[in-house]
Amino acid sequence: MNENEKTVEKVILVGTDTYDALDELRELADTAGAETVATLVQHIERPSVSTYLGSGKLEELAAYIESTEATGIICDDELTPAQMSNLERILDTKIMDRTMLILDIFAQHAITSEGKIQVELAQLQYRLTRLTGKGRAMSRLGGGIGTRGPGEKKLEQDRRVIRTRVSQLKRELADIVSHRELTRKKREGNSVPVFAIVGYTNVGKSTLLNRLTGSEVLAENKLFATLDTTTRSLELEGKQQALLTDTVGFIRKLPHNLVDAFRSTLEEARYADYIIHVVDSSSENAEEDMRVVYETLDMLGIEGKKVLTVFNKIDKIGGEDTASDEKVRGLKDSRSYMTVKISAKTGDGIDDLLNAITTMIREDRRRLERMFSYSEMSAVSEIRDGGLLITEDYRDDGIYIEADVPIRLYNKYIGQSFGN
């Protein structure tokens, strides 16, 4: 076999919920490069503490492994060390869980130094609790899902060495976070509004960012195509500038250690002025996906921000009005302030989206009308950059400015004679 050819892992997906729940796991497996050859679901109130599945289902699963020649099992939950060890012993095959699968995808897709640090940190923290007695299991891995990233050698080191590495990674990540904090403060000082684009994974966030800003952020029809936060500038009417920040997609059952490791990236949404919540209007699970996004935002402590809900992919639903305002507003925990329907792929509805963004900004601004002397060009420039410029009239005695500006700029530049 050619050295460049990759051996495709043949996996069986296992869950204790419904077949619908395994649809996402199948997508995750596909993104990781595995071939799903079978699925098995046991409808039980809670997984077995020792073996995840009951004895009957374990026998059924063993038969599946033999008939499909599967090389591994992927469970739709995070397994305890005991569950993983027992399943490996009983089934005599490679056992992976949801967290291991997601970490593997992250390891493949991390590009920036921050992304790579976050991935390694999450992997080491996950595997630190699984080192004891893993000699047999490690020899079984042999490459593929669960072995990318820090690699086997790090897993064979003792806990002390790995903890030292974890501490080092946390320090490196803290330095990056400090730098981002400085960038955020600079943005705040410039009064440029920031919109965080959030949504379930694979709903078209990166495609939307590319459409609005002319950037070339990677956009693929796969889960977690992009991991690293990307910020681009958007020019609105009146040469008003806004910043759009694309964030990593959310999924169901996002492991807590992943939330912790990627908190610095996810918190871009926390520090944004507004939230753009992108929804795949063609998805049958659109409402459930929206709930997952709300729950993740709550987990990050993000509340009290205006949310613009963008129903994307209307080009895929034909005449069906699945992306209705009534649907989103009918959700018990909906927090949408405004809704629009678009296709980031074709450009339909983009003007409506831009108008909605402009409206949200304008509603949080005050009208500034003032004459500035030519010696105050820096003030004019700040208003031009941080406000929605309506009039900029150069006269003999100065520059007459009419603009909708943030309250901070209004208070800074309004003369006493203009009152409140």
Q: What is the compact description of this entry?
A:
This protein is α/β, with parallel strands linked by helices and 420 residues long. It contains 17 helices and 13 strands.
Kindly state the number of beta strands. Answer: 13
Name the beta content range: 15-25%
Please report the distance between the alpha carbons of the first and last residues: 77 Å
**DSSP helix fraction:** 40-55%
Order of helices and strands: EHEHEHEHHHHHEHEEHHHEHEHEHEHEEH
Reported for the largest beta sheet, the result is: 6 strands, mixed
Q: Which runs of at least 5 residues are low in confidence (pLDDT < 50)? A: 133-141, 416-420
Radius of gyration: 25 Å
Strand line-up across the major sheet:
6-7-5-8-9-10
Average of per-residue pLDDT values: 80
Shape: elongated
Given the structure, what is the number of helices?
17
Structural class: alpha/beta
Q: If you had to describe this structure to a student in words, what would you say it looks like?
A:
It is a single chain. The protein has 420 residues and is an alpha/beta fold. The protein has 17 helices and 13 strands. The chain has a six-stranded mixed sheet, sandwiched between helices. A four-stranded parallel sheet has the order 2-1-3-4, with helices on both faces. The protein has a three-stranded antiparallel sheet with strand order 11-13-12. Strand 8, helix 13 (286-299) and strand 9 (306-312) form a beta-alpha-beta unit. The relative contact order is 0.09.
What topology does this entry show?
Elements: E1 10-15, H1 19-32, E2 35-41, H2 55-68, E3 72-75, H3 81-91, E4 94-97, H4 98-109, H5 113-128, H6 135-141, H7 152-156, H8 159-190, E5 194-199, H9 205-213, E6 230-235, E7 241-246, H10 256-261, H11 263-266, H12 268-271, E8 274-280, H13 286-299, E9 306-312, H14 325-330, E10 336-341, H15 350-363, E11 365-372, H16 377-386, E12 388-395, E13 398-406, H17 407-413
Helix pairs in contact: 1-4, 4-5, 5-8
